[in-house]
Amino acid sequence: MATRERNLELAKELVDALRKAELFITTVESCTGGGLAYYVTNIPGASDVMKDSFITYSNEAKLALGVPEQTIRSYTVYSQETALAMANAGRLRSVRADVSVGITGSISRVDPQNPNSKPGQVYVAVMYGQESLCRTLDIRPGERIDVKDEIIEKALQMALEIINKK
Hints:
By secondary structure, this protein is α/β, with parallel strands linked by helices.
């Protein structure tokens, strides 16, 4: 099955799980540019589980949302700590969110603003209540849209994992 179809299937499963548990989700996305929210909102009834989403494509946007400057300074913008801080900032700034996903990383090139970036290394964090999942993904090079879809697939799986754990 192609990744896009798989992502739509996972997004439907996620929307159904959120609806059943009466939960809301928000996303704070950098390198995926809102792609996770795109898949979720392609599912009929997504408005029952999502009120908002944030694209924080730059360091400045992450800071403006509420990611602590100290986190970026200490761990860099490309780290599990920053992904977790993004998820937390989204949860705090959201109209309503029980589950929050933060995604940061470098897809295809070294970021001139963040020279420590490693192309193909992406960080995903999911928060729900007191629980959190953080993972480092090593993504193989490819077409940018395909790479984003692969990251989104992992994020959808992680969101389902944390919801189904409770």
